[in-house]
Design goal:
Elements: E1 10-14, H1 19-29, E2 33-38, H2 50-57, E3 60-64, H3 70-81, E4 85-88, H4 92-97, H5 102-105, E5 113-118, H6 131-137, H7 158-177, E6 181-186, H8 187-194, H9 196-205, E7 223-227, E8 232-236, H10 240-250, H11 258-263, H12 265-276, H13 281-288, E9 295-297, H14 301-307, E10 312-315, E11 318-321, H15 344-348
Parallel strand pairs: 1-2, 1-4, 2-3, 4-5, 5-6
Antiparallel strand pairs: 7-8, 8-9, 10-11
Helix pairs in contact: 1-7
Length: 351
């Protein structure tokens, strides 16, 4: 097996909880050497649970530095001098106060890439910016859920994970450019960007997002969750060939075009709902998938994990979900998350 595609790249992380640590873990899984710089007492997520910390910090080294002290700042400078990038997710004022910007660190290494991952931008102020807060502030919560119910939040940290991936992309892009500099990624900007076609529809056509029952798509019909004889089924019919195959199996006539199905949404959904209620979600999946249709019975997370053992890895004492990036000829080693300050001497002064 070859070395990882990021072998030889050294990345420093001053990360908290999820977004920053997730970004650097993705890079570590691809072979980058990631040094996690932790404060006295350790990064706060160590206090959540061992499995939480393990899920975001495998394949890293740990160095304890007090960045508020002169000694800690000098040790940071030593690390920066031998690194390609620094990624930090903290309040903007803390990032600037601790000297974790390119302007502060370029004296040690003009080629260093400094990535600031914040709620509203490096110059956007210190208002608290947690995942749920950003979902509320960017319209995500308002467009999610049943139309007769309250705004709804997804069951996982969609903003933190999305921002972490975007920050990792920005970090790599600036490294590839060959130039050092500041990269600024905000949670707010990332989520607005991910509302792409929804935002464009409003900005250009004045179309405001509308909630539909069962998470239905705003145009494709039928494309939503359906209650079956046992469990829910996700069915996503996006074009006429899909509809033709589904209708033949379901015994439904008419509504041949996408435009007709959209115009007669209520009729289509009434027919489809009645037919799908005659069999179980699992059986419908088995019937429709061989026809090439996008369909899935709704699973719980435990069911999904049991059904996809190939996605799971072991890192030390923990079973985790592995990297989603598969590269021919490379297999990550999946080392366990580090103990606090486990790599102090070796990491600060490379040979």
């Amino acid at each position: 097996m070859s070395a990882g595609p990021l072998a030889g790249i050294r990345i420093l992380e001053v990360g908290v909880m999820l977004a920053g640590p997730y970004a650097t873990m993705m890079l570590a899984d691809l072979g980058a050497e990631v040094i996690k710089i932790e404060p006295p007492g350790g990064e706060i997520s160590r206090q959540v649970s061992d499995s939480y910390f393990a899920s975001l910090n495998r394949n890293k080294q740990s160095v304890l530095l007090d960045l508020r002290s002169a000694e800690g700042r000098q040790q940071l400078g030593d690390l920066v001098a031998n690194s390609h990038a620094l990624l930090v997710n903290m309040k903007p004022s803390a990032i600037k106060r601790l000297g974790l910007t390119y302007e502060s660190l370029k004296e040690f290494n003009e080629a260093i890439v400094c990535v600031a991952l914040t709620g509203f931008g490096l110059d956007g102020g210190d208002d608290p910016a947690f995942d749920y807060v950003i979902q509320a502030a960017t319209g995500v919560a308002a467009m999610t859920g049943d139309p007769e119910g309250p705004p709804t939040l997804p069951g996982y940290s969609s903003v933190d994970n999305s921002t972490g991936l975007t920050a990792a992309l920005g970090l790599l892009a600036q490294i590839v450019s060959g130039r050092g500099g500041q990269v600024d990624v905000s949670m707010q900007d990332v989520m607005l960007s991910q509302l792409n076609y929804r935002a464009a529809a409003f900005l250009n056509d004045g179309v405001e997002p509308k909630r539909y029952p069962h998470g239905a798509h705003s145009f494709y019909v039928p494309a939503q969750l359906f209650l079956t004889a046992d469990g829910y089924l996700a069915l996503f019919i996006t074009h006429d060939a899909f509809w033709s195959a589904f209708a033949a199996e379901a015994g439904i006539e008419g509504f041949a075009t996408l435009a007709e199905r959209a115009a007669r949404r209520d009729e289509v959904l009434e027919l489809v709902s009645a037919v799908l209620a005659t069999d179980t979600a699992v059986n419908w999946q088995e019937r429709l998938r061989p026809l090439g249709l996008p369909v899935a019975a709704v699973r719980t997370l435990p069911e999904a994990l049991r059904a996809t053992p190939e996605a799971l890895v072991t890192a030390g004492a923990f079973r985790l979900v592995g990297s989603p990036i598969k590269i021919a000829g490379y297999e990550p080693e999946y080392r366990p998350a580090p103990a606090l300050d486990e790599h102090a001497g070796a990491s600060v002064h490379w040979s």
